[in-house]
Amino acid sequence: MIINHPLLGPRDAQEFTYLGDASLIERPDWEAEDAQDQFHDYLYLRDNPAGSHRELWFHEIGDRSWLVVTRDTTTHEITSVEMARDVARAKGRSK
Amino acid sequence: MTQINRLDGGQVNRGTTLNFSFDGKRYQGHAGDTLASALLANDVRLMGRSFKYHRPRGVLASGSEEPNALVELRSGNRQEPNTRATTVELFDGLEAKSQNRWPSLKFDAMAINDRFSNFLTAGFYYKTFMWPAAFWEKIYEPIIRKAAGLGSLSLQDDPDEYDKGFLHCDVLIVGGGPAGLAAALTAGRAGAQVIIADEDFAFGGRLNAETFAIGDQSGADWAATTVTELQALENVRCMSRTTIIGAFDHGICGAIERVSDHVATPASGKVRQILWRIYGKKTLLCAGAIERPIAFENNDRPGIMLAGAMRAYANRWAATPAQQVSVFTNNDDGHRTAIDLIAKGVNVAAVIDTRADAPRLADCELLAGAQVIDTSGRLGLKFVNIRLADGSKRFIECGALGVSGGWNPNVHMTCHQRGRPVWNERLAAFVPGGDLPVGLSVAGAANGEFSTAAALKAGSTQAAAALRDLGMTARAIRLPNAEDEGVNLAPFWFVKHGKGRAWLDQQNDVTVKDVKLAHQENFKSVEHLKRYTTLGMATDQGKTSNMGGLAIMAELAGKTIPEVGTTIYRPPYSPVAMGVLAGRARGKEFHPVRETPSHKWATEQGASFVETGNWLRAQWFPKPGETHWRESVDREVRAVRGSVGVCDVTTLGKIDVQGTDAATFLNRVYANAFAKLPVGKTRYGLMLREDGIAMDDGTTARLAEDQFVMTTTTANAVAVYRHMEFVHQCLWPDLDVQLISTTESWAQYAVAGPNSRKLLQKIVDPEFDISNEGFEFMACRKITVCGGLRARLFRISFSGELAFEIAVPTRYGDALIRRIMEAGREFDAVAYGTEALGVMRIEKGHAAGNELNGTTTALNLGMGRMVSKKKDSIGSSLSEREGLNLPDALALVGFKPTNNNDKVTAGGHLMARDGPVDAAHDQGYVTSAAHSPILNSSIGIGFLKDGANRMGECMRLVSPLTGTEVEIEVVSAHFVDPEGERLRA
Fold this sequence. Notes:
The complex is a heterodimer of chains A (about 100) and B (about 1000). By secondary structure, chain A is an alpha+beta fold. In chain A, strands 3-4-5-6 form a four-stranded antiparallel β-sheet. A two-stranded antiparallel sheet of chain A has the order 1-2. In chain A, strand 5 (about 65-70) and strand 6 (about 80-85) form a beta hairpin. Chain A has helices at about 35-45, 85-90, and strands spanning about 1-5, 10, 15-20, 50-60, 65-70, 80-85. Chain A contains two helices and six strands, in the order βββαβββα. Chain B contains 21 helices and 50 strands. Chain B is elongated and about 110 Å long. In chain B, strand 49 (about 955-960) and strand 50 (about 965-970) form a beta hairpin. Chain B has about 1000 residues and is an alpha+beta fold. The interface of A and B includes residues 24 and 25 of A.
């Protein structure tokens, strides 16, 4: 597989480490009323789609960027690669 | 009697005679021969024994699809089993041995299996060797392995080297026959970056095996001319002896280039094979077609082969399996074999054609509407028994029979991404279907375009189309005139006759009967059929046999072939040597070793080393006269606790954390508070996973307002760094913090024991006060040592003694350990290894990897109160879950045997003094145990339910694994200096 790194261009998948569903970016607010439930869902409930899946990859043997890769789980086709920090910021995460 | 079956012409170089041996007998062949063609030229038809029944077998095919002629090639440590004689390029001095026979190929004692064939049918193993289970590994398997099987391994190290490489191109062309060469010409002339690969040593494919003209040249000459032109183009790379083994994700292809298999041993500095990873923007599959046999009784005798292979041997290699041959076919193409062999002066007794209206194409007897019903000849074909159109029978004497049931497009690679071939009624064959690998298109015979003219045209057209997709333009090339016959065939799969066995898959000894049995026993799906009968398994993966099995299953099930379906092919296309998959990653290259800065010094001290990950760490330092490791370790522990010792702790992970938000960041990564850690202080930190389970621990020092240095455990250094980058980039991207691993940048030594300060005062430059008042417990500071060398000093202790850790840039690590040991001589300083380190941390009750084992929480570790509830940190929310906070939660405690001579065993489980010993009554377990030379007793630490409230209780420690059961007492995990007075001295 080849991952088209937004900063470094096409790189072989061997350079990366896989984490999982990109929803891990959406970490709940620890002070919410139902924080326990939210954290439970955040950590344990995942969609497992046969098809397009947004997931986190770490360029471990590279520039150490976390990326959000949109990959078709049935064909491995990669349709988009974004910097995870940009995705996080777009979701309102900051400090 | 040399090469009596050598014919005129062909593409072998008679100017070069090569000597070789087969089963110890010496023969001669020529450059350009394969082992199979040279054996045939020498009148050797018998080349092996079959897998199960030990039937005599000869060569069936002329390429990598060969099921029968498998040999052990070479000898000694280069011996390779199951090598196909059809793909082995002859070289001088080649040695080959037949396989699966004893004592000799001509007399094989195990041929007795053939007599018991009624007991060895499909599913034999499943039905027979079932009970008792204990017999399976020790008795049944060794017997079966000895009786049935293929070649044997040398059991020696492979002396050859292998490489891996990466190639990029616009178009990868798989196969160098007419379609592939036309495609390469088209794309190459257009200036595209082209790679054309062929598994053969000569480009040309079937052009080398046929007598067709292309333009005014022979097919073989046209191929040679074309390759010469391609090789002159800088943008084209021609790779012969290169098999494309698979099409993988994103259209990346794997290839094996056999660099040195055609010579006796690789030339100096040359590898044997290379595994290439080819990134082609487009791939054009021009893999041709593979002929399929017709099944009839005793169709496996040496001399019976595919008709196309027979004429390949005659036309390309100038060899014939016998001086009198016949042909059995259901299509016009089979007649070409008769025509070509007659032209070569071989006597063709008859063409037996299943079609009643078969045309008479060759100048020999034609038996139309006839079928071969049986054969005879003990170690090779002597007679074929024919049922004529009128039902009468006739024997024909011949030493070889060419069989053609038609041709199957070689769709192998089209299936590698789960594509399924589709049935083509006109060709009576499967052709490529949808779901092709990314960027792949198919041209020529592989796509069912069987004639030479059609293949040339398709290759050129498809190459131009591929370039167009890439935004390039290709001009059409002028295609030479070539043969353009249509396919003229009447599907015919197997001859219905008596009760004898008709072979479908010769490599696995699967017969028509076995398929019938599978059907009868309800293994009807093609996938079940394959696994129940083993049809299509092993080295050839059914390239010549699958189709026949499907056709018979279809007939038995009363379905059409497309209704029955087909199994699909997986990579690799042909067998791959394990060595080339490993490449250079063997031995030390596979598992590289990381040495600490003190490694050379430790080696000089005679240290015993242990692998921790890739690191080699000194385990203990034996002194003269010490005969057991415990003596060394006990001495090291006593010396540290009594005076001073030094241990290399460089392998701990070190992460430099800098930025104005560094403190905030650490506060979120660690469960305990870090924000208010003063500059010049160090703090123990516990890191949780988001689910509340402990992940890692270590100390973190604040060197400046905006700079921290974190240590992690040796094992988790990489994972912790990755986690911290995740926390920064994905969760709080705007925190001003930068992380970098500095594990390799600093050599770090623990200097521990009551005299550690005195020792270090001789090392640390005098302007730095390291007295207890000037540098108190948990202090840290940037200092200089040995007259100006920059260093870092931390007053932290893993042993429980007054202790320091001192770090210098890695390149000074060797000098520093020598300087410290020199300075420590007056204190009898010792070097201590990981064992003494472990003993002392157990004596002190410090948790390590055994306790942070992926199931334990801060509460279990006795650090529940450290998890701050006043801030958000990873794992803090979920560590409050009810299930992790039950009143009887496991707690870290210590254990001592009641009887001082007993041993505490790590891994043992704790049970009440009375009552049953089972999982339901499990009270906890011991994680770490050691002999404490200070207490002169075996001690351990571990987890016990509600452990904090059970001090003094006597329990049983049970270890079914070691068969021990001892009585132990629950004690505090802090065996030594529980008040921590020594630390603060």
